[in-house]
Fold these 4 entries.
Entry 1:
Amino acid sequence: MNKRIRNRSIITLLITVASVYFFAGLPPSMKGLKENLRLGLDLQGGTQLVLQVNVDDALKATTDQTIESLRAQMEKSGITVRQMTRTAVDTFEARGVDESKSSDFRNLIEGSYSDFDIVSTQSDVPGTYTMKLKPRAAEEYKSQSVDQALRTISNRIDQIGVTEPVIQKRGGPGEHEIVVQFPGIDDPQKLKDIIGTPAFLELKLVQGGGPYPTKDAALQQYGGVLPTNLEVLESQRAESGGAKVYYIVNKTAAVTGRELKSAGVSRDENGRPAVSFNLNANGAARFGDFTQANVGKLLAIVLDSKVVSAPSINSRITASGQITGGGAGFAPEEARELAIVLKSGALPASMTYLEQSVVGASLGADSIKNGLLAAVVALGSVVLFVLFYYKASGINATVAMILNLVVLFGLLAYLGSTLTLPGIAGVILTIGVGIDSNVLIFERIREELRAGKTAVSAVATSFSRVFVTLVDTHLAALISATFLFVFGTSAIKGFAVTLVIGLIANMFTAVFVSRTLFEIVLARKERSETISI
Amino acid sequence: MVELFKGIKVDWLGKRKLFFSISMVLLMIGMASLIAKGSFKYGMDFKGGTLVRVRFNEATDIGAVRNLLPDANIQAIRTAETGSGSEFQIELEKKSENEDASAGHDKVNAALSKSLAGKFEIRGSESVSAKVGGDLRRRAVQATLAALAGILVYIAFRFEWIYGAAAVFAVFHDTLVTLGFFSLFNYEINLTVIAALLTLVGYSVNDTIVVFDRVRENLKTRRRDDLETVLNDSINQTLSRTILTSGLTFLTVIALFIFGGDIINNFAFAMVIGIIVGSYSSIAVAAPLVLVYTNLRKPRVAANQR
């Protein structure tokens, strides 16, 4: 055996062993296969959700907070204003600003609220300013809210203990989407309950007694028109009487969930499940002052704009508090979920479900079975044909094709790609493309032999000629596979990756391995002998 | 030596008018079907909505399932039997832009639970909002056109620009014909079908490149022969390969079509059609286009040759 053949054989052997090691371990085993080859959700079963973060919520909150903060600042600096209202998610209007202080007002906006631009001073009321969030700042807030939502969701999922979840951002600029995948879970409802709860906690002072049986009854306390600093909120659950009740509360919260340090399940004084929370230093100080000033009044514990309970303030409270379930009480599971969502932090914005895909374990198993059957039938019929048509050279093609699949699975596992159902289709297509390369070479060899060349020279000429064709065909296929990858959603990406890797593996086996096999055969024969093709 | 195609000498280019007619007829059939039906039958992932796959433990009459659905205000646009007679696909159409895409799964679950609780299993479901569906359709078209442009540039760079244009035109023809068959046979177009079409783009161009590559090789050594003869000979020389390869690839996708299961069925259908059309078009569309263009450029030479 000459040196060239020996070297090529060693390289082929090394790559084969490495590939097997990557996808099935050494020695290869079912266990190794399961560990190394990652199956997509469509094959192993599971749930995928695509959420859109409604980033306008975050802008709205920013604008609202700015109004409140600006109002306080203006009071401090003695700039009077008749009215300040938000007119769009990122725009607010200050009407009737004291005209003698207009330069002070402008300085305040430009100095302390530079995220906003004064975009207009036109109005029927003198001293009116319209402030709009700068586009760059708006983008910043939007992307922050997506990041924060991603963190919050991760926190929550960590705590309910899903194995190997995938949580990532998706989409280009202007798309605020998050993809979450839960292998092995086929009941999406529970997950959605936990992921989707905004969990924005606010502690607000209750005004004017209550609770009231209807919203109108509450409004009657103020002659039907509420002052702008108050709002009516519904209770989260029905009271013992069977109906929801209403409270009048301060719009501005004393403390919010942002100042929460921790939360956990506990028991209330009646031994029923409750949720305890601790505030951070800043929150504790403010809450201490607030409760001291309002002893004897009711404190509304507001979650996502619904009053969970409204206990009375008996004394000064600082760092810790408890949320009880009100009249009906929490079920243990409810208390646990509330603790989880509070601990993981509030979602910065509401979310919409854009996609949901659920694959039960049995459906996934069927897909694997169907895919394998199709692959075996495809491979089997192709092998039978080439053995019949190309005789001994058919063995060569078969070896090249199987090696092609081995290298394909090795690379898939090495790159950590996920095998999906479309991916299995990609594998089957790779069998087709792989055999194409061999047919191309074999037909050329036959042609050269017909033209009267010796076997050795026919093989050499064919491989060097066909190599050019193979480069062109593979590169063109690579171009379309690349666009498939760029375009694709996750399942299609899996398919595209399989195709690309299959093309690379095929280039190696068709050109390198197949030729080596021919040379091994030819090296053993006399110069004048023919080959079986 | 087993040989199916020995010493074939067919005048392919001489039949180019016949081929163009066949292609025109294929395209017209697809077009007519599309016009008659108004639109493609889009899969759930393109139009938005929910598809729930349900399996019943015992043989269940399709009417019984249908009757349950309207009761619970579920708008089922298709309830089809799949497989062993006790599996169903229930589709819910997307009603509004803002509806929660994930609600359909629970709705079907609730409706069936009313009187069939414990007798069925939801094997899986897919929901897509209308917004995502619209985006996907746009991106699918963009990706296909971008892939075609990429291939045009590559072949133009490796050969001459007319070869690139002819190859891309042929592939475009294949895509249209395949889509026509989808309309004609009422197959759904979904994401995996787009994947199949893009794969076909690559596959079909393969066939064309193999022929063109031979043309390039032959043109170098046979400067005296005119283009038509070289094209004909090149096609004949690569014909055994073309037919063997498409035959074998056809075997693999037929396996996928028959055994792959209904999730991958649309994909396999696209491949089955596309592989036949793809091989046909490299002989019957791409090569003749190169000849027609070259003859138009040099009308005098072409006239002399005749």
Entry 2:
Amino acid sequence: MTEPEWHIRQGNPGDRELLRSFACANSSATWQCEVERYIQVQLIDWAFDPHAAEADPRLLLGFSTSGELFGVAAHEKVRLREGNGAVIHATKIEVVALAPKWQGRSFSEGSRISDVLMSALLADISARIPPRNARVYAIVHEDNHRSIALCRRHGLTEEMTRPDASYRRLVTPRAQSS
Amino acid sequence: MTIFSSLNVVAARLARRGDASAAERVASAAASLESGEEFAGLRRLLSALPSHEAERVVAGDLPADRAPLAEMIRALANHTEQARPGDIMLTSPAEVIFAGQIAELTDALVVLVQAPGSTTIVPRWMANAAHRDQVGEFLALVADQIDGASAVVEAVPAIDVPAARFSPFGRGDNRATAITADDVRLLSGEPEPLRILIPVTIEE
């Protein structure tokens, strides 16, 4: 069995400088720049905010065999609240981002790099103890067609109401038998 | 006159409910707001006013010729709302807040519209006391239930705060976790198991 061409590890506070240099925006689209800026400046503080430990925030970093940071992903548990008080437990995908050089590419054994990172994220969610609710959602800019396709490939096939005119919320569906 | 962020009240209520972690987080956000430029600007503008006029502003009566003050208050309201914890319900069933815009007036009543189809009627003298008795002005009603058939209702002056630009990141924007009744229906039932396409080991 061949060794994978990647390794994924949990982020730590010492990764601040590494993330500061991470780039993922390859156009002048404002929403792409916002993702990049968020990762560079705020993601570490989000992941290790001591006041937010209850939400179990998780930061994952993907590296190539040469040690290059190719992707960043993060998630945490949230409570979705309806105005009349209904509460639904879920996991919010905070961010999934690939460096431009790795976008739209596959590893030599055929796995799409984006699928590896997304699989790592979902595997991490499913391995949390205590178990997370399998409702997983992502907020994606409506022009981010690649991310929308990525979410759909990984089972985020339903859509909630929009939190904003420009953003969509994709979520995992209910089980067939439910 | 001493001005504090209303987030201190939120923090105190969280602490009273035993949620020390959330209380600490909100108190920290309050301290951050109070030490910020906008709060300093608000203090500066209020201290420049005659005391009776400053008291009127605090009571909700914003003079039309004080645009910088109104802008400062709106900016602070926006930032306060962003810092308010969206994952924590502070409104108990016994406490109801209805905030809306005055749509109609009669001699005795004002009609307050929260959203299309969501309307209530308020005695005009209550709206008067809150310095809100003109069509287009904003008013909030805070009701505390006393028992099954009675409540205390307070009319509170409100202002229109334009929605802040949405950010899908972080924990600051409640819209990221706010859902509707349609969403609740969509999310009801057992979720499908997660679809993991590629086995991946994560190093801790």
Entry 3:
Amino acid sequence: MASQSAYLITLLIFAVSAVTIEWTIGYGKLKKYIRLISGATFILWLGGLIGDNVALKWGCWVYNPERFLGIYIFGIPLETHFFALFVSIAITTATLAWSDFEEQGRPLIKGTFDEVVEKLKHFLTI
Amino acid sequence: MVGKFTYLLWLAIFVWLPTLFLWLTNFDVLKRYKKTLGFCIFWALAFSVPWDILAIKTQIWSFPVEANIGLWFGGLPLEEYFFIVFVTFMVSTLALVLKNKFKEEKWRASRHI
């Protein structure tokens, strides 16, 4: 993975995949939260933008210029914007889905498992 | 910035303070979601620790030794585990606060308050 797309590839593996799985399984129940997730993601992206700029200036972490595309937006690499967006979406989506279970008194592990099985059955019958 | 406490100071300003504010102003709502918060943190660790380790091994990013306290576990500084746990906690907290604000608004709108 010794290339300029390395950061992007790890994003696809760990963050984009998580969001894709969440929305494939739970689209029907999650679509009512699209506005909420968009709002939370915007706030978190803005916070991430400021936080990452400060972290880089203070030397909390350092990006290797040989491992990302080299495109900077507002002082941080393009991939970091994607990081903030996809990680925020992944966490807010999971939070909202599991909080629905908790409000309904459904067990979280079994509830998630049931949703996955239901979706798989749906796909297999198509 | 402040030597070995730089990353900790960053966490305090950008993660712990906003989270504390959200909890102090919404404690009654947030305390109902302990399992959700725990689950989110568990899964965040399951995804992010391997991602972080891979990123270090492939030299995508690194953590300068002079900015953290020097406790390393599995190739990551202690502060990075704090980052994963507390950033997830903050994001989940914000989502739960917004969810309840939206609910409240809908309820008020339905009653024309």
Entry 4:
Amino acid sequence: MEKSWEPKILAFLCNWCSYAGADLAGTSRIQYPPNIRVIRVPCSGRINPLFILKALQSGIDGVLVSGCHPGDCHYLSGNYIGRRKFATLKRFLEYLGIEGGRVQFSWVSAAEGGKFSQMVHEITQEIKKLGPAKRFVKREDSRAIKFETQNSKDKTILK
Amino acid sequence: MMRRLDKRDFETFLESVMEECDLYAPVSLTEGVSVFKKIDHPNEVNFSQLLTQKPAKEIFFPQSEPMFNYERRGGKIQITSNEEVKRERILLGARPCDIEAISLIEKVFMSEPYTDLYFLEKRRKTTLIGLGCNPPLSTCFCSSAGGDPFLRSGSDLFLVDLGDAYSVELLTEKGMVFSKNKFLREADPEDLRRIKELEDKAFEKVGFSIPMDGIEKRLDLMMESFFWDRVHEKCIGCRICTYLCPTCHCFDIVDEGDFARGQRMRNWDSCLSPLYSLETSGHNPRPTTRERTRQRLMHKFNYFPKIFNRVGCVGCGRCIQYCPVHFDIRQAIIWTSSKRPRKPKI
Amino acid sequence: MSQLAIQEKIREKAKELLSKKEVDLIIGFSNWTLPLRTTPVFIRTPEGTESLIWNSFCENNLATYIHKFSRFRVGIIVKGCDARSLTALSLEKRFNPERVFLIGVPCQRMVDRKKVTKAVKGEILRAEERGEEIIVEGEEFKTVLNKKDYLYPSCQVCTHRTPIQAHVLVDDPVEESPLVEIHPGVNQFEKKTFEERWRFFEKETSRCIRCYACREVCPMCYCTECFVDDYRPKWIGGGLQPQDLQFYHIVRAYHQTGRCSGCGACERACPMDIPLTYLTQKLNQDVKELFGFEVGLNSKTPPPLSTFEVDDKGDFIK
């Protein structure tokens, strides 16, 4: 079946604010595109820039990093340290030629279910316009590998 | 047998050769940087640099070589091995030091009973076309290392640049295959004289400056010498000398992939890397650059001659040209030849 | 002061330090076998100081040796960039500053030997520096070059050529104005589209042979376990796949954010002539713009990525 391309977006959400915000979006039944996959981290300051690069290299089309608002970090200053990292990383990636819209950052608090879903809508739209990630991707077809088991049932493994 | 190839026929000659074989020749990647690569078109060949950065061993012993691929299909795992070489190959434009180095590496990879299939396949199917060095560089010391800027041994064909043409010597059976090639004309009687002139000039330039004779015996006495405490100081432990060396042959085998598909690869490795000898326990028998520099020089000038009756260096001088801190292996050898091991004069 | 006079002063000071046993070892530069090049030397006796030299080919950053010789009391000959690297290293507590004596030389900018080699046809057998000229000689040529046209890009943009952190300066401080405002590589680059930028980066890094010379010459790369050797998680493979080469260069440059003194040693060491300083210079520019920080000027200011300000710029965050 011919399916039009759907972007795959990875979201690193901090446990205390953004992840809770995403949870709230879910319990409030706020709809947002299913293109997003979430990885929960203790704090946005924990994000190693290599995570973002590795995601881009694995064929992920976009990365969203979200943390607590400045001043509200559960660990007091994690998001401040993260902010500096993100600023330098974003500028560097754009300088190298990786489109600016692919890696995005936001502050989403635990009460902002609506904002989270809005972020997901926005980033999905932008990535759809940018197209699939072609630069820097190690294995083009590594995103989903199908293999048949002995029962001939199709099993799709996400990469 | 001697022939002549006019330079204006060079590209068409290569085209005729490329119809049946894959041609590997020096290619310029950017100004001042060239490597041996498979070429798609004769105009890519570039002899302007005497020595390419990466040596000719790359053709037989690539820096990163997939050994086999594996893939899960239908519940089973399928393995496809990669050592087969489909087409005959020609290595064009390797200098005598690089060709001599290949015969050194052959001793390691092709001696019974441990024959390396990947190397063997490529070597069997390759014809070597050497190119004489006129003129050699000031960093060349091939004649001190048992070689010569016009050494023919090891080449199947040997070219000498005479200005408007190449003189082509067909030396072996593989070389004689070219005797019917229509672009190789009769040699000019003057050619021999011109070649001798170039050879004499080159040999005078390279000379016999480095005392390699007996270095194996000298190093036998020097394993724990204070000499190593000083020689290693400026080495920063990068891998340039080993990767650009035509005779270095250490490698690492790694698997890359996931449970669905992947590859086993053989990559170049370097004894100068601290991780090279790091053991699982955490112990490292070569913890500092002192031990690693000693290892490199001992391997080249003591262990290798003991096993293979030849120093493990061909005097190409790449390590001298490209070392970021200007370590000069010729100086290290000269220091070993003083009457007794002593502190180098710095 | 002329280069010869500076050389004399360096020898004098080094001799003094060794004679008074204030240091165990002097790390400086000396001539060696090839023209256009110098080599690091390690001198332990006052007589040995006669081999110390100073000229526009002293391109290495000697701060890298502090890791290897940290158990000795060392005296190091430093240019502006080298001294800044050492300050950054002392902030990261990599050595005891009381055991290091810096002999500072205000730098007249270093000559790009690769550019000089490309400017002539044939091998250079002898090279001499005479004032503002470089005279290179081969078997069949003798050419005079204008030194100013052959300086390293990282030296052209440098505004910290005087090593103010040094314990002693052998010459008067130089006027700190750059020859060009923005690094030529960075300047060109910012005018390109995303596509063009990536193509350039891809093409240049495709030559990489993973020799790690850039990593080893850099004084700031001292991790005993580099990210390239990490196994769990495995960031990059060991071969020459272009994506691995790109990942390596992006991360190596990025790990220097807020730590790089712009000495250019990485670019000078690369055997495949990959322009690395256009990456590190961009990061230095950004760090200066975003956090007002320049490496090594103040031995108390912490590295920018290890600290924060409440009002840091964050308008790119939604």
